[in-house]
Structures are given as C-alpha cells and as structure tokens.
Amino acid sequence: MWNSGGNINSQTVEVVDPGDMHVTGDIDSNSKVMLRSTGGSITVDGKIDGSSIVYLVASGGSVTVQGKVDGSSTVVLVSTVGTVTIGGKIDGSSNVSVEAKGDIGIGIIAGGDDGKIDGSSSVTLRSLSGTITLGSRIDGSSVVDITTAGGGIEVTDRVDGSSIVHGQGDSDVTIGDKIDGSSRVELVSNRGSVTVDGKLDGNSNVQLNAGRDIGIGVGLTGGTEDHKIDGNCSVTGIAGGQIHLGSRIAKNLTTVDFAAGGSVQIDGDIGYEASVRLL
Hints:
This protein is an all-beta fold. The protein contains no helices and 28 strands. The strands form three sheets. The chain has a 13-stranded parallel sheet, with no helix packed on it. A 13-stranded parallel sheet has the order 3-6-8-10-12-14-16-18-20-22-24-26-28, with no helix packed on it. The protein has a two-stranded parallel sheet with strand order 2-5.
C-alpha cells in the first residue's frame, strides 16, 4: 500500500505499487503525478487542479477522485476491472479521459453546480460494460464524448451553452432536462430508448437514434413551453419503436424529421412555418 501523506503540490510523483494507493489530499499547482496499482484501487481524497497532469491506472480495483478536476488540468483515469468516479465537477478548460470496465460517474457526489462539466472542458468517457452517469449539466462550450458498450447513459440535467455531446449506449440514454443554447447533440441507443425530458431550443442541432422509443419533452416537471421543439432547431429522430413529443413545434427555421417503426405522437401544434417530415 502507498500513501502520499497529504497534498501533492508542485511535485512530480511516479509510483507503481501492488496494493491500494491513496492520495490523502489534493493534487495541485502544476504537479505531475503518475500512479499505477497492479493489484488494488487508487483514491484521491481531494481535487485535481492548477494545470496538473495526472495519470491514475488501476489494474486490480477502482479509481476514485473525491473532488473536482479544474484549472486546465489534464487527467487520465483507467480501471481495467472496476469503476471510475469523479465526485465533483470538471471545469476550467480541463482535459479528462476515463476508461473503465464497469460504471463511470462524474459529479455524482457533489451534484448540482459542483457536479457539472463546464468551462470549455474536453471529456471522453468509455465503459466496457457499465452505466455512465453525469450528476449535473454539460455547459460552457464543453465537448463530451460518451460511449458504453454494455450499459446506459444518464445526464441528470441539461445540455447547454454551445456544448457538443456525442453519446452512444447499449441500453437507455437519458437527458434529464433540455438541450439548448446552440448545442450540438447526437445520442444513440443500440437496443434501448432515447429520452430528453425537456425542450429542444435555441438553435440547437439534435440527432436521436434509438433501437426502441424516442421521447422529447416528456418529463414530469414544467409546462408546455418546457417540452417543445422551438428556436430554429434542427432535429432528426429515428426510432425502431414510437416517437413522442410532449408539446408543439414552432419557428420558421425549425426543421424536424421523425422516422419511426411505430407511431409518432406530437402533443401540440405544428406552426409558425416550421418544416416537419413524419415517416
């Protein structure tokens, strides 16, 4: 077992250990850290910040960062047999790559504003068999690429602020709120459903492809204005099953193409010269 004995600040640390490895504090201030556990887990109790460069690889357990990743840090986290968790947000133009055999969680400890992906950050998440969960929103021109070969994807809040998101899962893919603010989003579920609980708005470009059903604006909170397609969005939905939109389609430059193996249900008007094709 290896222990840092406190914070790692402005240091270069390279360690390989056969057991568990524990950073009992933060990694900060331009630190360069490379830790590899060949038979255990790796845990960082605090944050990774201050343009630090961090590689954590666990071949015998999970990788956990309790705090945030911020301040233009570069972070690579790999668990070949377990899960990877970042408890706080990814922010401040940070670059983060995560690979895990099991589940991946980002912002699931802090949640809310402290659990977001924001600030022009670049994030890549790959799981072989688990579920990938984001505890808050994707915002601020961030670029996020999410793939799980054997599980689903859940973003508990919105996608906003000119962000670019690609998500591909084997089972259900869910966005817990709206897609807005000139964002570009592509969501694919190979064998499940794709659901966006809130509206599609603000000149966003959205492509949804589901082996089963697609739901847009079908969340239980908010009114009809929170469940529409509006704001000159471009939307394509292809479903093996049904497609359900919870409100209206509007705006003269809005374009919507829906193709479904089952029924297409739109719970509102198609108006204001919006262009809609239903197959």
